[in-house]
């Protein structure tokens, strides 16, 4: 009997759901996307996911996956590297540019060492050669889902920090940018052509609005913002 490696996976979607369609609102349960042009294998893997309570959606090509809706919660993509149209490896390379990269488990019947290395360098969390054991795939999916949970948590924290940054006035943003760069109040005052007292007042407001208590905390959250504060 196959073990469930995802613990709180939640119920699987209806077998009659259209591939790529959005089901019930996301409840935090993970979902597995399977992209493989081998229909029998894809359906077999879907059955495996259902047997351990994992939500799953199957696609016959990269384009089908791109055209379909995807959930916002934790996910894993099981991807065959040899597909019609855009190959799995090409898709992996494209995903490197995305803000959120859904963790990928690569599967192939044509695996070799160079391809394995290329897949891992492109961000795959694991590389399995067909035929593989069900538990090996489930273990890889579990690792991928946990990685995505952590990634989503980091993105949420970064979004919260950015939202706080946008509550700052232009003058406060200017002070924060320079504080994060390590400038002293006197240096900031000279560069902005304001008094040192003004810098101290703005700096205090920045600390409150950014919800930090120490300079080290301010530098840390500033480093989470892509762009101006760095």
From TrEMBL:
PROSITE patterns in the cross-refs: HTH_LUXR_1, HTH_LUXR_2, RESPONSE_REGULATORY
A GO molecular-function descriptor: DNA binding
GO biological processes: phosphorelay signal transduction system; regulation of DNA-templated transcription
Q: Which of the residues bear the PTM 4-aspartylphosphate?
A: 80
| Region (Disordered), start-end ranges | 1-30
Q: Which UniProt keywords apply?
A: DNA-binding, Phosphoprotein, Transcription, Transcription regulation, Two-component regulatory system
Matching SUPFAM superfamilies:
C-terminal effector domain of the bipartite response regulators, CheY-like
What's the name of the protein? DNA-binding response regulator
Query: Which species does this protein come from?
Result: Bordetella genomosp. 10
């Amino acid at each position: 009997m196959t073990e469930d490696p995802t613990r709180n996976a939640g119920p699987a979607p209806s077998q009659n759901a259209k591939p790529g369609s959005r089901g019930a609102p996301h409840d935090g349960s993970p979902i597995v996307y399977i992209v493989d042009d081998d229909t029998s294998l894809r359906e077999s893997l879907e059955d495996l996911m259902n047997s351990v309570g994992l939500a799953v959606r199957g696609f016959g090509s990269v384009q089908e996956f791109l055209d379909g809706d995807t959930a916002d919660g934790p996910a894993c993509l099981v991807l065959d590297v040899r597909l019609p149209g855009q190959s799995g490896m090409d898709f992996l390379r494209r995903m490197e540019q995305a803000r959120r990269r859904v963790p990928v488990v690569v599967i192939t019947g044509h695996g070799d060492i160079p391809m394995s290395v290329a897949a891992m360098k492109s961000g795959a969390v694991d590389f399995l050669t067909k035929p593989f054991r069900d538990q090996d795939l489930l273990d890889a999916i579990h690792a991928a889902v946990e990685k995505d949970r952590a990634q989503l948590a980091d993105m949420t924290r970064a979004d919260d920090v950015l939202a706080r940054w946008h509550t700052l006035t232009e003058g406060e943003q200017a002070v924060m940018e320079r504080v994060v760069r390590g400038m002293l109040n006197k240096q900031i005052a000279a560069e902005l052509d304001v008094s040192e007292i003004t810098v101290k007042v703005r700096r205090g407001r920045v600390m409150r609005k950014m919800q930090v208590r120490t300079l080290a905390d301010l530098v840390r959250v500033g480093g989470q913002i892509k762009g101006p504060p760095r």
